[in-house]
## 1
Amino acid sequence: EFSAMAANLNKMVEDIRRLMDKERESERTKNELITNIAHDLRTPLTSIIGYLELLSGPNSNMSAEMEKKYINITYTKAKRLEKLIEDLFGFTKLNYGKVSMKVTKVDIVKLLSQLLEEFYPNFMDKDLAYELQSNVPAKIINADGNLLARLFDNLINNAIKYGAEGKRIVVKIHAAESMVTVSVTNYGYVIPKEELPLLFEKFYRVEQSRSSNTGGTGLGLAIARNIVEMHGGTIGVASDLNGTVFTVRLQVDFDINKENFGNPGDRHE
Ligand code: ATP
Ligand code: MG
């Protein structure tokens, strides 16, 4: 009897220790997140303040043209700040399980072809050709259509932003009995191998794009991964001279009640 009690106690001690570790880890992640956010918000804000000071300074005998230019820059930076804040809200909501999923029947082929159509002006803008390939004319899966749209929106946006040199973007759907695989491929710049696993980390940006002339936050792929995991699927990336390919695998019969996944926010990052 005593040995059973001892075993029980030991198990409790172990459970408590694990909980405490988890708490400590999530506290650390939170602090890191806040530091990153503060840094990212300060950059555009500093330049907004700088330009406003120039505009309202006492001895500003600036030409109307200069004035207009500065106002424009301030406006662009303010918009950038707005996007950052929006991204952040979207991300924390997802990460802390505040987004309830509305799972319905979604035609994934239709969803992607509509999405690509919406991107038409962006493709034109960058002189990019695009192609949608599918082994079936339609494929119904269980999923949250809005979340999936957001997921692929992020991937296609990236392909346009980072693959503009490649002239071509290919979206491929392969539907099988129980899984659907969607890949988004762009060409041009190859991502160094050692950086590939880091891309899905929040705020991670490959050196080349960090210079911020592409203006990203580094949250797009972290959000994409959260959405995929909420659907019990997987996302991966490969990059070589044959292109940069993001591959998403989704279950056809996803059942939110059967799904034994933790809240994505529980994952230790
Ligand atoms: P945003 O939050 O606006 O999406 P972002 O695009 O920088 O910002 P992610 O979408 O998370 O952030 O991508 C992270 C980084 O991965 C990018 O900065 C870029 O360096 C790299 N990357 C993502 N997609 C591609 C791609 N298709 N081709 C090449 N590099 C890519
Ligand atoms: Mg992105």
Note: The beta strands are 104-107, 129-134, 140-143, 168-175, 179-186, 234-240, 243-251.
## 2
Amino acid sequence: MAEQPVDTVTEVPVAIVGAGPAGLMLAHRLARAGVDTVAIDIRSREEIEITQRAGIIEADAARDLIELGVSDRILRDGFEHEGVDLRFGGRSHRIDFQAQVGESVWLYPQTDVFIDLADARARDGGTVHFGVRDTEVVGETTERPIVRFTAADGTRHEIRARYVVGSDGSRSICRNLVPADQRTQFFREYPFAWFGFLCDAPKSAPELVYAHSEHGFALVSQRTESVQRMYFQCSPDDSADAWSDDRIWATMQARVAGDDGFQLVEGPVTEKSVLIFRSFVQQPMRWGSLLLAGDAAHTVPPTGARGLNLALHDVKILADVLVRALGGEGEAALADYEPAALGRVWRAQNFSWWMTQMLHTPPGALDFDVRRQLGELDNVVNTRAGRTYLAEQYTGWPARSGD
Ligand code: PHB
């Protein structure tokens, strides 16, 4: 590949490998500071737009999307959620975020965040190549890193940058550029997965419902007034095709059933998939002129809805650090990235793991384990410290809290 002649050579301060929400938000933030970028992604724009991801944006991230001029569509098409329901013992227990911490979250799907960011890049004249192939990054330990790729139209391009950012998701090629003996990968798998589906139906509840039951976990989320997103715990070996609509609804209804008579409003299932669960962190997040952000550096299980929010937090810090590095401080400024990003990464790892272990029933769980979980849930909803803890973690540790 390296010998292949290139059709264009571009010089730009920052090359971004991975144009999902993290990469595009970074490009947007840098553009506002006068720093040019070229972002590339192996997926087509359409493919990213239809890949279902989580749907909860924390308060600070929602404010940033609006105040940084990405879009204010979240105010029109999103839904402000001032709380969440934890459902166990056959009834729902609401955690009131506003009462606990004075914050809300926004139900606004990641696909919409991506569309807003891609539109903003197009509107502002930013360069983004979707659907590229044969990507290679070379010279990442030098001051002249290079990204080469073949664009969707078959032309070959070379980007000469000062810094390269790897925001290329959980199957990152960039993170593998850190030599194996120089990196540590912290990894945890879970003995269950999520079955996620979209359905055409009205909302079953005004806010999200996280349900613990003797049959396993379920989550009732939403998309619009007429399209809903739901999940239930399944086996990692399950195949989406093995689940008929009837079986999906019977499973969901059993997991949310209770003495209060709560029932989901059913409708045709329009999309379904099995989502593998894992917790992952790679350190360091910087290698020479390469910086990792978002899922490329860390993955969380979706239970706490932290993944996108964490990625957006990474690039908030990274944009500042890159602007300083390019603006005279030089690469010494890069040393500030990982310490500032990593604290939140491990907090989110803990919260995502904690929500996961509290709500799921692992295969072979003892009666003791299930009763202990119910004790934990009781502590969360029926003590002030418990409610505040969940509310603060879920709405996302605002910067003003001094952390
Ligand atoms: C979703 O709406 O897709 C969603 C919401 C909350 C989660 C995970 C996924 O914790």
Note: The mean pLDDT is 96.
